Amino acid sequence: MQYFKKLLEIFIVSTRLGFTSFGGPVAHLGYFHQEYVRKRKWMDEKSYADLVALSQFLPGPASSQVGIGIGVMRGGVLGGIVSFIGFTMPSVIALILFAYFAQQLGLMEFGIIQGLKIVAVVIVAHAILGMAKSLTPDLTRKSIALFALLITLLIPHNLSQIGVILVAGLLGYFMFSKKEEHDGLSLQVPFSKKVGLVCLSLFFGLLTILPILNSIISSTWLSMVDSFYRAGALVFGGGHVVLPLLEREFVPTGFISEEAFLSGYAAAQAVPGPLFTFAAFIGADMNGWLGGMIATFSIFLPAILLIYGVLPFWHALRKNHHIRGALIAINAAVVGILISAFYMPIWTSAIITPLDFSLAAILFFMLVYWKLPPWLIVLAGAIGGVLIKMT
């Protein structure tokens, strides 16, 4: 009974954070620190810092993985799942509802979609500036980012993105292996390495088997699961970088229109919680609420399997200079991939007239210099889109 009370507590606290955590992954980590470390003291400062470091090491949504890890430390295997559900559920429900009302009300006719597409331009531009500053501080890493930009822009295929990440990792394995040593691990993992091995086996097994099954079996549902799972498994650098992978999986194939895709991405900025819940909008636009739920499960499953799989082995991985060096170069390549996605399809489909550019400049100023919350930027963008439509 005591254990179930603990799980209920995890669920209540994480759900409240899911309703109130606006501002992206960096802000989420701040909310987590305040709630879990300072207020509730579920973890000490060092353990939390180690958990954040682990989330940066892995592909997938960093804030969600930290939330899952905190749940694991507090309530074991089930604690991580409960924490994930609580933190993710509010934004998933909001985006599924947005997909439904966007279709029913014909929002594009009022210019709202165009405004939201311009919001996407502003949000991604801001993400590029922040990531480039932290992930490409020297000429070598800037050069890797340029290489990734050119390849993914000139060869717009999902395999080119995967290839860029692999090549960058190989370069970093040799070029950045002499970086400084980190402190030792203080996390106490409440399950064995066998559980970790099972999760890692599932992660790599699904990554291999799903594309094969998708090529053999003609099924929209299987194709959707495969695409979302690969996107969740191959994204380094946070939610913004999932955009090009998802866009090139679903827009050219006709599963979702470019307008709906970008409007959903913009709407995802307005809701609290992880940006990966953008998948809920795409799935709901394709196949209703059930599609939204399956899409959400598919894109988050790699992150869940990885955090459970790597936690017991994190100490050894963190001490490996070569692996850390590979991740440094991969993060630099992510910046180039993000710039490529910024140009096409985001910029090319949204900024068409001087009025579009003017609205983008105003929204960028509001976000970067006035530091207004993202939901207000989205609201202003929607209103601006309506006004542009009326001119």
Automatic annotation (TrEMBL):
It is found in: Cell membrane. It comes from the Bacteria. The chain crosses the membrane at residues 77-100, 112-132, 144-175, 195-216, 289-314, 326-347, 359-388. It holds the Pfam family Chromate_transp. Belongs to the chromate ion transporter (CHR) (TC 2.A.51) family. NCBIfam families: 2A51. This is ChrA protein. It comes from Cytobacillus kochii. The lineage of its organism: Bacteria, Bacillati, Bacillota, Bacilli, Bacillales.
